[in-house]
Amino acid sequence: MIKNNKFFLTNFSNVVIFGHPQHEIIQINKKLKLSTTVITSIDQSKLMNKKFINYKVFNSIDKKCLKYLKNKFDFKKTLFIGIGPRYIFKKETIKLFEKNFINIHNSRLPLDAGGGAGSWTIMREDRICNMCIHMMTEDIDGGQIIANELSLYPKNCIIPSDFKKHSSQLMIKFYEKFMNKLIKKVEFDLKPQIHYLSRYNPRLNTEVSGFIDWSLNSYDLINFINAFEDPYKGASTYLNNGNFGKLYLKKVQLHGGDTSNHPYMSGIVSRHDKNWIVVCTSSKHMLLIEEVINNNGKNIISKVKVGDRFFTPHEKLNAARSNRIYYNAFGLKK
């Protein structure tokens, strides 16, 4: 609840999580003797570890969902939490939850509202990590800040799986600290977001957004490729006349030990060293590439020849930039 611009809960025994929580979050609640119910979409339910998490599937916060919640919970004694939900929460719905509705966001607000946090972080070379809890409002990631904790990403965070693993570990510790304070009836000062400093990051999808623009300078190029690395399929492109179909590049490094390039050389395979290839960029660096994955998931690097060129058709690049990505309860919105 909110009083005198402070957020606190005097007496609560239930937690309702919308989205996709880690099982460690459920264990923390259990340790604090809090009953947990997860409300998730059909798409996110595929990611749930059924061994640890009991959940109910609703594809929208509709009358059926609200009826279920009203019958099961006293809203005044329930904390509602958003953890990556795929739902749209209307103002009237948020109001029902007695101002006990918060959201957990793992980037800096208002600087990094929206989605695709890990990939955008890599592309922009942002090395500052933030765990943030804010009030849920109808404005995406726009509510007052309840608590946050800044830190630096370790140097070994390079690809999305590195950032995700590190952020997940921080979130668990941050969540446990926050919940312990709530149980002890600590009052949190609410801090407004400075909206003239805000920036919204639209969502990304590897298959749609991940086409490589070989005209980028070498630094922007490696950051873009890394942004779609594990756990994603990989940044994509084509080779020569496209006979191999769409290809995904993985295990790519920037290399400054060879001679300089000319922008027209970008994408050309200059050397094949058996287990990796050396590829020109539009600036002074080369790319060292260990995996060129086809649509069947096979590494075809042995089939790549010196003098071949990676390229991406302009229509693919234009589509990647012009098609906005939306996700709903069923996954990628077509």
Structural category: alpha/beta
Beta-strand proportion: 25-35%
pLDDT averaged over residues? 93
Largest sheet: 7 strands, mixed
* Tally of discrete structural domains: 2
Q: Work out the number of β strands.
A: 20
Could you please say which CATH topology of the largest domain applies here?
A: Rossmann fold
Distance between the termini: 38 Å
Shape: elongated
CATH class of the largest domain: Alpha Beta
What would you report as the Rg, rounded to the nearest angstrom?
Answer: 23 Å
**Uncertain parts:** none
Number of helices: 9
Overall helicity: 25-40%
How are helices and strands ordered from N to C?
EEEHEHEHEHEEHEEHEEHHEEEEEEHEE
Read across the widest sheet, the strand sequence of neighbours is: 5-4-3-6-7-9-10
Q: What is the CATH architecture assignment of the largest domain?
A: 3-Layer(aba) Sandwich
Structure characterization notes:
The strands form 5 sheets. This protein has a 7-stranded mixed β-sheet with strand order 5-4-3-6-7-9-10. The chain has a 6-stranded antiparallel β-sheet with strand order 15-16-17-14-13-18. It has a 3-stranded antiparallel β-sheet with strand order 1-2-11, with no helix packed on it. The chain is built from 9 helices and 20 strands. Strand 16 and strand 17 form a beta hairpin. The chain has helices at residues 23-31, 42-45, 63-72, 91-96, 117-124, 160-183, 206-209, 218-227, 314-322; strands at 2-3, 6-7, 14-19, 35-40, 55-57, 78-83, 101-105, 113-114, 128-135, 145-152, 188-189, 200-201, 235-239, 247-255, 269-272, 277-280, 286-293, 310-311, 327-328, 331-332. With 334 residues, it is an alpha/beta fold. The chain has 2 domains: 2-201, 3-Layer(aba) Sandwich (Rossmann fold); 206-332, Formyl transferase, C-terminal domain (Methionyl-tRNA Fmet Formyltransferase, Chain A, domain 2), CATH 3.10.25. It is elongated, with a radius of gyration of 23 Å. The mean pLDDT is 93.
